[in-house]
Model the fold of this input.
Amino acid sequence: MLWYWKHVGPRRIVEFILLTIFAIFFAGPLVNLLVLAFSEKWNYPNVLPQIWGFKWWEFVLAKDDIVSSISLSFLIATLVTLLSIVVCIPAAYAFARLQFPLKRMFLFSFLLTHAFPKMGLYVSIAVLFYQIGLMNTLLGVVLIHMINVLMFMTWIPTAAFRNVHRAQEESARDVGASPFKVFRSITLPMAMPGIVVASIFTFLNSLDEAQGTFLVGIPDFKTMPIVMYSIISDFPSSAGAVFSIILTLPTIILLVAAQRLVSADVLASGFQMK
Amino acid sequence: MSSKSVIQAGRATAKKTISPETKQSILGLAMVLPSFAILLIVVIIPIVQSFILSLSNDAGGYDLSRYAYLFTDKGMRGNIVFTLRITAITCAAVLLVSYSLAIYMRFNQGPIVDLIRRTYMIPLFIPGVIATYGLINLLGNHGWLSRILETVGVTLPRIIFDEKGIIIANLWFNIPFTTMLLSSALAGIPSSVIESAKDVGVGRLRLFTRFIFPLSYKTFLVALTFVFMGVIGSFTAPFLIGANSPQMLGVSMQQVFSVFQEREQAAAIAFFSFLLCSVLGAFYIRSMAEEEKGKM
Done:
């Protein structure tokens, strides 16, 4: 072992140590939850659980309010995703292809969603919702979830539509395709990866949103992250770990499925012009 | 029909109906307006309204008393100073680590780099509550790390329910996102520029200060904006990890709104947090607008 380190040189060793610290820093909390979720008895100061098992899974899945929070979260995330597709994709197409007055103003207005600190914005919204009676309503919760997704749901598809070559659309028009047909069979399929990525982020973002829901959805709209807040204080840590895994599962499944489409470049185009 | 009459008929309809340009304008506006309406409801109106509300005083008139309270109340002043300190430390640490990592990934090859490239974005998709909970269990009193360190006789200092915990959680949340923004900017620097600079014998430090930083400083500032606002507007991590006092502004305004039910005061704290971020926010919008100019 020692000769190996001597062989690779000090630079590699420093590199290796730094990356190990990095990996532990980011993976540590998650691995810890994974171990906790399958431990039945884990007393201090044991480094690993004394008894492994599924006891806490049965405990968590038997709680009605926890199970209902899962379906509520999925319902809200689906609504938010559908609404943002219906509202944002046409806007993205208009930004990419049409000329209309105040176009720049409209495009940049979406930056406003990211130009204010989140909790300040949520409190301002809650103040408004309180006056117009949207506190503790489904519409109120869906609207507050829309804030985080409006911008990338518009910008990522805008970038995707722009990347479709006009020449291809024009040649389809030349052979007699109607504008709608061109959109259906050329523009939309080519922009689809961007739209899919944006939709997946929207869904995940809504599934994970906690702060805004905590402010305007209490007491009736207890989504998974909100239930998590109370689990942390009320239940043993193994129960919390089990629920954490349930809450993270959809994220992992969707990301693995969309792995090919997700890249730093696509993601970054949702937050800045390049 | 002769070709002449077709042209005439075409002219006649053109006079009656609207021109293609106007049609496109109307279509474009119709497609954009629904999303703008949502923006109006969830961002613009709330901000204007909270500003007006924050100016109202107990007597029913309008003055700056709600803002004066932020600086005269000792607890509140402590919260503001605390928030700014945490934000400054986080920004410096995040940008340092993320820049190094992004540069490392850009200019190195090999299996380790590939592995990092494929995994560093994962924390972006982990729900904030979950990551915070994981950190509490890992770093807390009698947590996993303290158990592991105990075997070699090291006692872990208090991290959770302390500012150290908030900073660590902020690093966990912000490093992946910042690294993502910065590596996408560094990917835009042509390798030929770097290679030719190396060929004429430019050192590493000069390479960074003369080429890499100037070519990516705009994204650097955008990243700074996101981290700064992310920390000032954060709630989950400081709510679950932070001590009771001093509090981060996000937690403090939630308490004032939900627990004390003082909406006017909450609005004032919210608007104050906007003011803290206004310079960076304005910069962000302006630089994006400039970037876009050439494309319309």
Chain B has two domains: 1-55, 73-293. The mean pLDDT of chain B is 82. The radius of gyration of chain B is 27 Å.
